[in-house]
Amino acid sequence: MMMDDFLIYGLGFLSQILFFARTIAQWFKSEHEGEVISPVIFWQLSLAASILMLIYGILRNDFAIVLGQFIVYIIYIRNLQLKNAWKKMHYISRFLIVILPLLCITWLLTGDSYNFNSIINNEDVSVLLMIWGSAGQLVFTFRFIYQWIYSENRKDSVLPLGFWIISTFGSLMIFIYSIFRLDPVLFMAHSLGLFIYIRNILLYYGKTGIFSVLNNNPAIKEKIQKISDRIK
User: For 36-64, what is each residue's pLDDT tens digit?
Assistant: First the structure.
């Protein structure tokens, strides 16, 4: 593997670490509260991870990844607005969040090695595999469109049951895609994520939180409470 490949995969794994961190934060908070929670940090980490994943998708000439990240980016911002957290962010952070995807579009329009043509006509990805991967990304991405519409109706950022059901099906499709695509980043991300998606579904159906068992120990209960309080 060439050094460039290490850097590209490193970027992809970093994005997935951030995606996984958002999911862990959301899961931890939800387990503690005994219901599904939509914390602000979930959406903040989503934006940081998304821009890294978008760059990774461009460098991998992967149409499915690029398509998925472009669709959900604005939804992440909208959820921060619904949580009344967008304007509280530093103006430089907000500027970077808005300008970075526009720079990626400019890159795809003007780049030589990496552009719209290279990601659509990637010889390493067959037409059928690209269709399957893109379909998986669309299903996986639709969860956020569903979540956005649901949240707009509620006038609050929430993660409804349908979000987690769609997440599970979409993640399974991308997991299969990652095997044929030989993509370790997608493989690891979706093998780990499936547990969280299924766990949130169980919480919706009244399954007792995992932390309820640990709350019998005062010391552990106190530490869990402190961590949960830090997740806003």
Answer: 788 899 999 999 999 999 999 898 888 87
Structure confidence by residue, pLDDT tens digits, 71-121: 889 999 999 999 999 999 999 999 999 999 999 999 888 888 887 887 877
Q: Give the contacts of 172 (CB within 8 A, at least 6 positions apart).
A: 190, 194
What is the rounded distance in angstroms from the CA atom of residue 77 to the CA atom of residue 111?
Answer: 27
- Give the CA-trace dihedral at 168, 13, 100, 131, to 10 degrees: -50
**Cα of 106 vs its chain's centroid, Å:** 23
Q: What is the 8-class DSSP label of residue 217? A: S
What are the tokens at 86?
A: 């967008």
Which helix or strand (DSSP H or E) is residue 136 part of?
helix 127-154
Residue type, 12: G
SS3 56: helix
Yes or no: say if 138 and 130 are a contact pair by the CB < 8 Å rule. Answer: no
- Amino acid identity, position 195: F
The Cα-based distances of 94 to 45, 90, 136, 154, 157 in angstroms read 14, 6, 30, 25, 19
Question: With contact defined as beta carbons under 8 Å apart, do 30 and 36 qualify?
Answer: yes
At which residue do the structure tokens 């909208």 appear?
A: 78
- Determine the 3-state secondary structure of 133 from DSSP: helix
Cα–Cα distance measured from residue 189 to residue 92, given in angstroms and rounded to the nearest whole number: 30
Q: How far is Cα 95 from Cα 90, in angstroms, rounded to an integer?
A: 9
